[in-house]
Amino acid sequence: MYRDGDNEVVIALEAATGRTIWEYKYPAVFLKGMNMSTGPGPHATPLIVGDRLYTVGVTGKFHCLNRKTGKVLWTRGLIEEMGGNVMLRGYSNSPLRYRDTVIVMLGGQGHSIAGLDLKSGATRWQGGDFGNSHSCPVLITVDGEQQVACVVAKGVAGFDPASGRVLWSHPHENRGGDITSTLIWGPDNLLFFSGAYQGGSRTLQLSRQNGSTAVKELWFHSQMRVHHSNVMRIGDYVYGSNGDFAGITYMCLNILTGQIQWRERKITRANTLLVGDRAIILDEDGVLHLAHLSPEGLQEISKFQVLENLAWTPPSIGGTRLYVRDRKSIAAVELKGNK
Description:
Largest sheet: 4 strands, antiparallel
Structural class: mainly beta
Strand order of the largest sheet: 4-5-6-7
Number of strands: 30
Order of helices and strands: EEEEEEEEEEEEEEEEEEEEEEEEEEEEEE
Oligomer: single chain
Distance between the termini: 36 Å
Helix content: under 10%
Radius of gyration: 20 Å
């Protein structure tokens, strides 16, 4: 997705050549209360389910399109129609599939999140009284029970993905817009999340006890503050960019204790993609780094300048081809491994 003036555009490109297959453009004038000076969006990642494509833009316009043709199948207005919160930097939450519903975050009394029918877009359920954040919902399994975990304004919460019922919540001081990074969940029932400004980082341990979810906080501190890039977990350690504006460092932290293992200053704010035992790191200056990440440090294997403008989108990979983009362009890079 990209923006063209007062319009948002969904585009399908041929993977091998970048040739445009189809485009769908729709009006999306910024809403009152939004300040898009740091980037016009769209911010959310499209969702593919079979031959259907689900997209949402900064003004909360939600579309279901035919993946092959771009034909509109149905639309919903998450803000103006369904009453979702107007976020300062625009709507950012990526849609999430659960069985035959697509889960969206709204924010507000009675509809923190909602489940929409995959085929028709009809509202199946709504639940929660929390304000929205910029972070995306994730499916987790707590001792056999599936849940949707969401960062919300002033906290993090778990919901029943079949009904929207709130299963648990835990306070985390933020203004909703302070947390953009996606929650990190592990099979050991540890939930890590981090936010900018005064948000800081936390690890929660979840468990099922007597028919409900118990939440235990393992630690909290403000030494790691992830602004809007992603975080990767390898074993008992998480890796990501720390800092809001000046003094950005790439950091390794113990998820069990919160102990900082190391800080690396040679990589600015960046998004990371794990491929086997290697990390592909795209920093906001458009430099692509190939590295090993471990508790002992960041071992850089190679790097090169691949983009020229501000790059805040995480890289993605299909086969041996890496796709990267910045504010103005998108590129495909062929990866060749050493034998």
